[in-house]
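Ticket 4471: requesting a sanity check on a complex prediction with D-ribose. Repro inputs:
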Amino acid sequence: MIALGCDHGGYSLMQEVKAHLEERGLEYKDFGCYSEESVDYPIYGKKAAEAVASGECERGIIICGTGIGISMAANKVKGVRAALCHDCFSAAATREHNDANMLAMGARVIGPGLALKIVDIFLDTEFSGDERHVRRIAMIED
Ligand code: RB5
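Returned C-alpha cells:
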C-alpha cells in the first residue's frame, strides 16, 4: 500500500501518479488534498507520513509545488525518511543508500513524464542493505 499526500500545487500531478499506479496494479491510499483549492501542505505531508510510520503503508509519495515544504513536514514524523527527488539518479540512490520510505516531488519543478519515471525507480529499487548504510540510517533515527 502506498500513501499519497499533496497540496493544491501538487494536485494535478498526483492525479497522473494515481493513474500510473492503477496501470501498474499498485494499491494506494489517498490522504488528500482532493482539489486545487488552496490548502496547507503540512497537513497532507504529515497524514501520509503517519501512515508510513505506523506501517499502514509501506511507502509514500508526496507532492507540493516545490516538494520542499511537504518533505519537511513528512520528515518530522519519526521513522519517516522522505527524499526530495527530481532526477532518476537520486531516486535510485536514495532507495539504495537511505532506504527512503517516502518520495517527495515538486509539481512546479518537473513534468509528469520525468515524475512518473522517478516514481517507478523509487518503487522498484531495493535498499542495498550494506552495513555502512544501515549504520548511517540508524544514526538519523537517534
Ligand atoms: C504553495 O503555494 C507552495 O508554497 C507549496 O506547494 C510548496 O511549494 C511549499 O513548499
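Notes from triage: The two ends are 27 Å apart (CA to CA). Leaving this open until the requester confirms.
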